[in-house]
């Protein structure tokens, strides 16, 4: 589907205005931004391959830019959820429409079929999780965008300006500690040419120079295909739940819907039914359910809803990205004005408090009362809080210390020093970026015991889809090799960037892959693996000695209805396929870095660092010819994987965890004693409070008696003529005085 996005010209006119019209020399903003770009074009310093690979698509970020991006992304998610729910009417409106339609007589077969389809389509749609759809769709959209940006960079034949560095000093200033002005100039420069990748926000187009070029048109067509594929996948899962009684929505019986659809004649609308049968309902064994889904996916009501969703989502992406650029421009201008004001005063701020709030601060908090403390870092029973710009991000001490080690090791490899003054900035940016993803299941990883098995069995050293939080840290001082979703925030913690930018031909060996469980994303992953396997399979008149062994061990859910699973299953390089039972394995929790140490140790209840798998796992081994000779696969691999998934820690770690658990139990017992004493004290206080109230009541009663006795005496004196005036008048005077006093 090819659609024109409303207001594209307006948004890109805003880009030109914010960028000063590209090459125009009349705008002072353009001259300043062009100078920032021009200063990085000449490259006389060879940047390390890992950094070039990590920063190839996106410029580095900083806390202020990441806060702007995070707030716009949260607004987009909220609006997208509402947009998705409003694609179909509510249950009350749908029931009223159905009653009106049923009152009409002699409806056409097409209308009857559509009405039958809506009776299933609308209640199932209302049960589809909008947040899950966006979390999975986001990975596929970002992969599509990154591929378009790579193609544009290859066409231009040059690296982006933030990767063209003259010296080691410029490397630190531009990539390690970039300013908001630099990032703003890089984003505008890259967006106009289509060579910059936005890591989080959805974008309406790749390039702003020509909104009708082939790249932008292809991008829009593919975004529609991705949305349609994701909606179909989630619809099938929600349809199964509704049939199984796990839904609040009333759904007609399958037999009734099936008989109604069978009784109606075929129409031209379903001429593409054969294509729907092959692509969308694979894995549905029930014949009636498969027939119903085929009719729904090929119907006009379903297509119109998906088209409506795609159109409105692109409008929303356009507005969100325009707001992001506007906020980035405002922040850049404000920072430039502040710097100019300091230069005019002839001095720069030295020391003191950072009034702008751009410098994150790390404090340590208590697990129980969440109070700020000054405990030492080695107290692993505590958490840390990183605060910046009014936002507070939590991380436990173990993961913060791991990130410190990775950061120092990376700086030592690149710069020969472990200067860590920028650690707080990088840590806050990293935490905020991964906080925006949500979806703890999508960020989950295989346990370290499984990666150790792959390392010992096949020499596996590289994790294709990891994060600085859950990557496997090599023992004996070895460097961790892993790819991540965000090279701009993860590079300074050892990441080599995106899986789709790694040169596996240069590396060779065994690679582990646990991708996000999105169908189109898994399909794109397989296509890249297939590319390298075909290059190294020895089919192109190459010597066997020159061909490196290459093997991919892939962990994905055993979803037969997923197109990604089907592509892996049908691969010509598939050597072995193992199924791990759902009840016999677990994954590392994606949000483990946010949990306290006490929660992390509680593995049995599913609330700690590990989560029990909610599905069977398929393990695919893809090998070229050299890998088949070097690593023959047998039944021992299946047994080894099952044992590795069943284990949580080795014997030494078990001892450590037992010692920690004893300490924690002692501390918890001490806290329980304190709580018991405080509760006993509260009970005593509550018992004493009613007695005080009784005493107060008795004292007030005595006062009333005295007052009443005094009034009687005054009446006696008045009757004897000893007091002037009437007693009632005296009372009125007292009341008036009391009113004035009040």
Cα-to-Cα separation, first versus last residue: 78 Å
Query: Any idea what the shape is?
Result: globular
Instruction: Tally the beta strands.
Output: 12
Could you tell me the radius of gyration in angstroms?
A: 34 Å
Which ranges are low-confidence, i.e. pLDDT below 50, for 5 or more consecutive residues? 1-44, 268-278, 350-357, 367-378, 602-607, 649-665, 690-708
> What is the structural class?
alpha/beta
- The residue-averaged pLDDT reads 76
Largest sheet: 6 strands, mixed
Report the portion of residues in β strands. 5-15%
Number of helices: 26
Biggest sheet strand line-up: 6-5-7-8-12-9
User: What is the helical fraction, as a range of percent?
Assistant: 55-70%
Summarize the structure.
With 742 residues, the protein is an alpha/beta fold.
Structure description:
It is a single chain. Mean pLDDT is about 75; it is low at about 1-45, about 270-280, about 350-355, about 365-380, about 600-605, about 650-665 and about 690-710. A 6-stranded mixed beta sheet has the order 6-5-7-8-12-9, sandwiched between helices. A 4-stranded antiparallel beta sheet has the order 2-1-3-4. The protein has a two-stranded antiparallel sheet with strand order 10-11. The chain is globular. It has 26 helices and 12 strands. The chain has about 750 residues and is α/β, with parallel strands linked by helices.
Q: How are the secondary structure elements laid out?
A:
Elements: H1 8-18, H2 28-38, H3 49-54, H4 63-85, H5 91-103, H6 109-127, H7 130-156, H8 168-176, H9 180-193, H10 214-243, H11 254-263, H12 273-280, H13 287-297, H14 300-345, E1 361-365, E2 372-373, E3 383-388, E4 391-396, H15 397-415, H16 423-437, H17 448-458, E5 462-463, E6 481-482, H18 487-490, H19 504-507, E7 509-513, H20 519-535, E8 550-557, H21 563-569, E9 574-580, E10 586-588, H22 597-601, E11 610-612, E12 617-623, H23 625-630, H24 635-646, H25 651-719, H26 727-741
Parallel strand pairs: 5-6, 5-7, 7-8
Antiparallel strand pairs: 1-2, 1-3, 3-4, 8-12, 9-12, 10-11
Helix pairs in contact: 1-14, 2-9, 4-14, 4-16, 5-6, 7-10, 7-20, 9-14, 10-14, 11-13, 12-13, 17-24, 20-21
């Amino acid at each position: 589907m090819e659609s024109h996005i409303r207001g594209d010209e307006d948004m890109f006119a805003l880009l030109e205005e914010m960028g000063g019209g590209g090459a125009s020399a009349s705008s002072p903003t353009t001259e300043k931004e062009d100078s920032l770009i021009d200063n990085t074009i000449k490259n006389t310093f060879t940047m390390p391959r890992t950094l070039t690979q990590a920063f190839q698509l996106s410029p580095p970020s900083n806390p202020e830019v990441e806060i702007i991006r995070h707030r716009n992304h949260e607004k987009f998610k909220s609006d997208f959820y509402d947009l998705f729910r409003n694609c179909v009417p509510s249950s009350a409106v749908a029931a009223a429409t159905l009653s009106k339609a049923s009152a009409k007589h002699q409806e056409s077969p097409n209308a009857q079929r559509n009405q039958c389809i809506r009776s299933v389509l609308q209640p199932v749609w209302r049960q589809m999780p909008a947040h899950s759809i966006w979390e999975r769709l986001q990975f596929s959209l970002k992969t599509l965008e990154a591929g378009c940006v790579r193609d544009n960079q290859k066409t231009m034949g040059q690296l982006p300006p933030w990767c063209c560095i003259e010296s080691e000093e410029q490397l630190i200033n531009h990539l390690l500690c970039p300013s908001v002005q630099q990032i703003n100039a890089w984003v505008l420069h890259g967006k106009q040419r289509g060579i910059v990748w936005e890591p989080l926000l959805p974008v309406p187009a790749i390039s702003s120079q020509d909104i009708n070029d082939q790249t932008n048109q292809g991008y829009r067509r593919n975004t529609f295909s991705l949305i349609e594929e994701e909606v179909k996948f989630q619809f099938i899962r929600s349809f199964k739940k509704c049939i199984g009684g796990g839904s609040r929505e009333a759904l007609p019986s399958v037999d009734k819907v099936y008989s109604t659809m069978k009784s109606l004649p075929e129409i031209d609308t379903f001429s593409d039914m054969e294509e729907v049968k092959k692509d969308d309902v694979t894995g549905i064994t029930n014949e009636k359910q498969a027939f119903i889904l085929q009719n729904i996916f090929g119907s006009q009501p379903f297509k119109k809803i998906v088209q409506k969703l795609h159109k409105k989502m692109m409008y929303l992406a356009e507005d969100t990205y325009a707001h992001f650029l506007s906020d980035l421009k405002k922040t850049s201008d404000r920072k430039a004005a502040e710097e100019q004001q300091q230069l005019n005063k002839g001095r720069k701020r030295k020391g003191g408090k950072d009034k702008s709030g751009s410098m994150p601060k790390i404090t340590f908090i208590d697990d129980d009362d969440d109070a700020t403390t000054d405990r030492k870092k080695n107290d692993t029973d505590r958490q840390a809080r990183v605060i910046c710009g009014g936002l507070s991000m939590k991380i436990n001490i173990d993961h913060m210390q791991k990130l410190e080690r990775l950061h120092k090791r990376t700086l030592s490899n690149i710069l020969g020093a472990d200067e860590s003054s920028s650690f707080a900035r990088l840590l806050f940016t990293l935490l905020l970026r991964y906080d925006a993803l949500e979806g703890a299941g999508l960020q989950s990883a295989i346990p370290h015991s499984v990666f150790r098995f792959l390392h010992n069995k096949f020499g596996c050293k590289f994790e294709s889809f990891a994060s600085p939080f859950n990557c496997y840290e090599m023992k004996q001082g070895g460097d961790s090799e892993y790819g991540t979703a965000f090279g701009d925030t993860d590079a300074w913690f050892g990441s080599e960037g995106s899986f789709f930018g790694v040169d596996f031909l240069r590396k060779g060996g065994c690679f582990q892959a646990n991708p996000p469980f999105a169908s189109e994303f898994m399909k794109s992953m397989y296509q890249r693996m297939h590319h390298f396997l075909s290059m190294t399979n020895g089919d192109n008149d190459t010597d066997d000695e020159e061909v490196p062994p290459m093997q991919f061990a892939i962990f994905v859910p055993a979803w037969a209805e997923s197109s990604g699973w089907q592509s892996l299953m049908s691969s010509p390089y598939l050597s072995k396929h193992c199924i791990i039972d759902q009840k016999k394995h677990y994954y590392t929790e994606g949000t483990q870095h946010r949990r306290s140490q006490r929660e992390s140790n509680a593995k049995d209840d599913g609330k700690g660092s590990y989560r029990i798998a909610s599905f069977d796992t398929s393990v695919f081994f893809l090998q070229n010819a050299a890998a088949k000779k070097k690593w023959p696969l047998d039944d021992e691999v299946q047994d080894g994987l099952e044992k590795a998934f069943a284990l949580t820690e080795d014997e030494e770690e078990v001892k450590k965890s037992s010692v920690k658990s004893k300490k924690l139990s002692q501390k918890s017992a001490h806290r329980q004693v304190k709580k018991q004493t405080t509760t006993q004290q509260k009970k005593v206080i509550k018992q004493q409070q009613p007695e005080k109230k009784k005493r107060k009541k008795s004292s007030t009663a005595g006062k009333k008696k005295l007052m009443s006795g005094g009034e009687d005496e005054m009446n006696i004196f008045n009757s004897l003529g000893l007091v002037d005036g009437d007693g009632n008048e005296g009372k009125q005077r007292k009341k008036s005085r009391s009113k004035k006093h009040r």
